[in-house]
Amino acid sequence: MKRILSLTLLLSLFMVLLTGCGNQTGLQDGYYTAQAAHFNFGWKEYITIMVKSGSIVSVEYNAENSSGFIKSWDNAYMQEMLHSNGTYPNEYTRYYAGQLLEEQQDMEIDALTGATSSYNSFQKLAAAVLEQARKGDSSIVLVDTTH
Q1: Which of 61, 63, 100, 110 is the most buried (most CB within 10 A)?
Q2: DSSP H helical segments within 21-115, as ranges?
Q3: Model pTM score
Q4: Cα 125 from chain centroid?
């Protein structure tokens, strides 16, 4: 009888430990993308995240034009924006993506001076992509980033 009681207690403890090791963030493993519903000044911003073991392990934030050219690769635009705004797409897209990766779901991300419009879009896109990850829905969600 003692042996059955000990075995039951041991199995119960094991089940509690297994439950405690589960996904605490509510994010489902997979790839998730949120994209602006409309082009803004010729660019459509997007965020793609990869979730593994319930944590965000990769974040890509960028924008593309109608031909699929990536904004942070546009050197002429980079020079123009750097001189007028003090920042440029390759800098602020990596900064915002890095902040989401570091903060995970907390969204305590500071705006960079000169990239406030992209910051506002990023906040909306990040909220949408996190919601997709919570649901485990890997379809691309379109987000109105203009308001």
Answers
A1: 61
A2: 75-85, 89-103
A3: 0.75
A4: 8
